[in-house]
TrEMBL record:
Species, as recorded: Oceanisphaera avium
Molecular function terms from GO: CDP-glycerol glycerophosphotransferase activity
Official protein name in the record: Glycerophosphotransferase
Keyword line: Cell membrane, Membrane, Teichoic acid biosynthesis, Transferase
Localization (cell): Cell membrane
Pfam families: Glyphos_transf
Recorded topology in the membrane: Peripheral membrane protein
PANTHER family to which the protein is assigned, alphabetical: TEICHOIC ACID GLYCEROL-PHOSPHATE PRIMASE, TEICHOIC ACID GLYCEROL-PHOSPHATE TRANSFERASE
Main location: membrane
Source superkingdom: Bacteria
Amino acid sequence: MSVLNIDKGMLKDRLYHLIRIGYDRFFSLLFYFAPLKKNKIVFNSNYGKGYGDNGKYIVEALLKQDQDYDIVWMLDRYNMDHAVMPDKVRRVRYGSIQFIYEMMTAKVWVDNSRLKYHLYKRKSQFYIQTWHGGLGLKKVEADTELCSKYVKMAKRDSRLANLFISNSGHLSHIFKNAFWYNGDILECGSPKNDILFADKTPFKEKVRAEFQLPATSKILLYAPTFRDNNNFTAYDIDLLQVKAALEHKYDENWVMLVRLHPNIDSESVAEIFPDKQIINASRFPDMQELILGSDMLVTDYSSCMFDSGMAEIPTFIYASDVESYVDERGFYFTMQQQPFDFATDTQGLINALYAFNQPQYLANLAVFYDKVKLYDKGQASTVVAGKIKKVIKGQQISITANSRLAASQETNR
């Protein structure tokens, strides 16, 4: 009976997939002949899950240009009502018929994830893929095992893209060798990382106001990545023990925030950490702002560790399933090569917290970022917005030879 139910479920999913492909192709072909609006820029981010990541910061840079742009942001059902966005940005429901219309009539597409809908793209349209991770520990795309459905989607997305945005020589190498992509790469840094070079004070105030915390409280942010099997057993950190250890060491009040990966239902925090002292920060719209508002970050394999490091915030890796995870997914760096203290159980993490040395930590970061050729300088949003302005005006955009050839040079070494 269970096998029959599984077969029915698979058949239902397959049928929906085929219907959706037909739906996408019909309406994109219909709108293919609609006039192209040369001042329109469409943004997709995390499949409609809010206003944030690289796209947000590109939008802010575009608005500073004071040009007559028609900027459209795609949102899911929840965020159509809840996302906080500039008034000059239009909201459109992600995946709707209007979504297809806006995509087909826009001059520029900007996305941080794979385009999952089967849309046609005009030759005169320009697609910028910013990706949602910069430096990363875990292997991605062709460097790991993926289902055939995702691989087809990823290959299609890379064929459509005109430009990828990279924040490091390391990431450029991955784009060229694991993303099925042979086009231009703009090595200017990640737009979302620009604020990591800003004053932290306003973000500390914003985060504390959002969660109604005293101004004097310290914040530890626990932000693990997802598991391919959607299993929560690896999130076995005892945050209350960690809280007690931090308060003992620093003689200050510490608050534990948890932010789950966008692939996980945000309401799962209460299931994983039922204690009321643990605060769910998964719906906070901007991860970079949340990092800057925190005083410490604990993650497992998420690329946010490198963002936090850029902001010189104490960062630790807690990964109780590291042996099985590295066998299944694989890493680009060993735990010994990355600049963060690493623990596999709560006591080990507490020991690392007690032994933490800020000057040595900063020295380790400097060595690591130099090794991976980090390009983040706080100007990426302006650089990308400038390229978009040229595309809108019909001007040729220049990508340096270093940007185009960085990955192939790495491969030949």
